[in-house]
């Protein structure tokens, strides 16, 4: 990864130097700086020299030529389902495509339904010298991850992680995000905080762990009876789950934290159908901060996940491995923040 020379004030290390910093210093566009550093066409000789020298002074590691290279983007079935329903994947891909255009990299999209399709993708990447590496989007399958061990070109997992650290990955810090969300509700006086989720993916399990971390740190017991599981991310399943909970046990909670915004939509509908108001009777909080969250009634308090940034950083992480430094696999996690709106408030009573 590129790092700035020297250190900041009071001995603090400087932040990572970005391509945007070099472009700004030289008074050129990011695409011009990228072409100059990658040896691309369309940059005057004197300007190219200035840009390269500036990069060297800032200790920006100049990668091997990447302009015109290809990167295979392989999306799992889970990613494509999300693309259609919840749009999280859409915004990750938007950030990835924008970064690829800036760097002059061609993305080749492929889908993965089973191990045979992944083997075909790896063979394609291995046989084509213009392919720099592979990005695997929302991939959790352990068998598939094992198949890629030792692959000679860079592989980065996007919105996924490898517990064995065989591959680099980029994700939001799901565990800390869920903990921050739960602490926000605890600070509003809520203790009976239901966690509504679909289990299965490791990234969602991290959110489940963060919820438990926050409750445990505040001494809240009996967590197991606060978990509600659904079989899919459809809002109507969230509605059914909340409706069933209230019918069976009454309103024995004051807040709902959901593992995704789509389930928060369903939870609010279920509460409204049961005659309760959000947030007067029950606070509801989501995770993702999809654009529609701000237009719900009431607007949804949620954790903002930097989706576009995840996509862009995944390509940068892959390209870092082309510089010949033989870097070990690494995990990049993005901090998330609370987008506070009107669906949360102080605990009733």
Structure description:
The structure is a single chain. Strands 2-1-3-4-5-11 form a six-stranded parallel sheet, sandwiched between helices. Helix 1 packs across helix 2 (30-38), helix 8 (174-187) packs parallel to helix 9 and helix 10 (235-249) crosses helix 11. The chain is 42% helix and 17% strand. The longest helix is centred in the N-terminal third of the chain and has 16 residues, at 88-103. Helix 11 links the parallel strand 8 (255-258) and strand 9 (283-288). The protein folds into three domains: 9-57, 434 Repressor (Amino-terminal Domain), CATH 1.10.260.40; 70-172 and 307-334, Rossmann fold; 174-306, Rossmann fold, CATH 3.40.50.2300. The chain is built from twelve helices and twelve strands. With 349 residues, it is an alpha/beta fold. The model is unreliable at 1-13 (pLDDT under 50).
Write the layout of secondary structure elements.
Elements: H1 19-26, H2 30-38, H3 45-57, E1 70-76, H4 77-85, H5 88-103, E2 106-112, H6 115-127, E3 131-137, H7 142-147, E4 155-158, E5 168-172, H8 174-187, E6 193-197, H9 202-217, E7 227-229, H10 235-249, E8 255-258, H11 261-273, E9 283-288, E10 301-304, H12 307-320, E11 331-334, E12 337-339
Parallel strand pairs: 1-2, 1-3, 3-4, 4-5, 5-11, 6-7, 6-8, 8-9, 9-10
Antiparallel strand pairs: 10-12
Helix pairs in contact: 1-2, 1-3, 5-12, 8-9, 10-11
